[in-house]
Amino acid sequence: MAKSKKPKGYKSRKSKQSMMPIVLGAVGAFAVLAVVATLLSSGDTPVYGDVTIAGEGLPTFSDGSADGAIGMAFPEITGVDFDGNVVSIGADGRPKLVINLAHW
């Protein structure tokens, strides 16, 4: 009896199904590593430095009114990054977009 030839690129259903345990194992390992990394990084020492703001503060925006901060100079913000380097955002005549993000 002659063996039938399979088309090029043919994969049996069995070989496709055998990848599922590997994928699930990888996802599970990643989840465990993420939890361990979170637990190890939640110490009592802060990961930020002192931040100072110099200049006139921006007025509070009231909904439905004109924005009083338009045209005002941006106050200079100075802080320290994770490596201890001084970081400063100041009014140097160039437009800036400052985005504040939080992890919680």
Please give a structural write-up.
There is one protein chain. By secondary structure, the chain is α+β, with helices and mostly antiparallel strands. Helix content is 27%, strand content 12%. It has helices at 13-17, 19-41; strands at 52-54, 76-80, 86-89. Strands 1-2-3 form a 3-stranded antiparallel sheet, with no helix packed on it. The termini are far apart.
Provide tags for this entry:
104 residues; 2 helices; elongated; alpha+beta
Radius of gyration: 28 Å
pLDDT averaged over residues:
77
> How are strands sequenced across the largest beta sheet?
1-2-3
What is the SS-derived class? alpha+beta
Helices and strands in order, then pairings?
Elements: H1 13-17, H2 19-41, E1 52-54, E2 76-80, E3 86-89
Antiparallel strand pairs: 1-2, 2-3
Entry summary:
The protein has 104 residues and is α+β, with helices and mostly antiparallel strands.
